[in-house]
Amino acid sequence: MSDDEQEHYFSADPDVPFTRERFTCEVWGHELALTSGSGVFSRGHLDHATAVLLRETEPPAPGQFLDLGCGYGVIGLAIAKAVPLARVIGVEVNERAILLANENARALGVSGTFAACRPDQVPTDYVFDEIWSNPPIRIGKAALHELLLTWLPRLAPGGRMVSVVGKNLGADSLQRWLGEQGWPTTRLASVKGFRVLETRRAQ
Predict the structure, then answer these.
(1) Which of these, 143, 155, 141, lies nearest to 184 by C-alpha position?
(2) For the whole model, what pTM was predicted?
(3) Which residues contact 100 (CB under 8 A, 6 or more apart)?
(4) Residue 73 burial (CB count, 10 A)
(5) In sequence order, what are the beta bridge partners of 191?
(6) pLDDT digit string, tens, across residues 10-36
(7) Residue 169 has what DSSP assignment?
(8) What is the distance between the alpha carbons of residues 71 and 172, in angstroms, rounded to a whole number?
């Protein structure tokens, strides 16, 4: 990803020229043919962190899911393909990513169970059994903390967030901080410099 694209992938309206790029990956036994694009995180490939997250976990049980910072949708789409009774909402500020995520859902035949939208389009009373995320660490610590404290309270009692964070990007300090905020967080896996974290809501 170029510096320009790195700068714009979490912008609402990236100003780099829009070109689509397709690729295929396998998650939980399902082949996902995806379309990514310029100005969107991880164009043309499955990024290392998300690959670790999906490789080190099993498909969740049926429920209501949030793919937080969904990009072009790979995590939420993987859940929608592997868990037939899932209902998945992907939230994203990048309008280009939202477009691609919904295109990918249609192409994969899961548009009935996956939809991507802006955060302000999620009904305020909607709760989730699980949140899955490769969170946008590079938006900065304050903005990341605000993002997490906005969405974690939307977990149902006993719900959890599963996330992946680079060790060099502050995974261990984030794990401690979440615990200090009343969100006990444990490490599910540590692979190739990445931590897969599970954050629980009390019953």
Answers:
(1) 155
(2) 0.90
(3) 20, 35, 36, 37, 40, 72, 73
(4) 30
(5) 194
(6) 555 556 667 788 999 999 999 999 988
(7) G
(8) 24
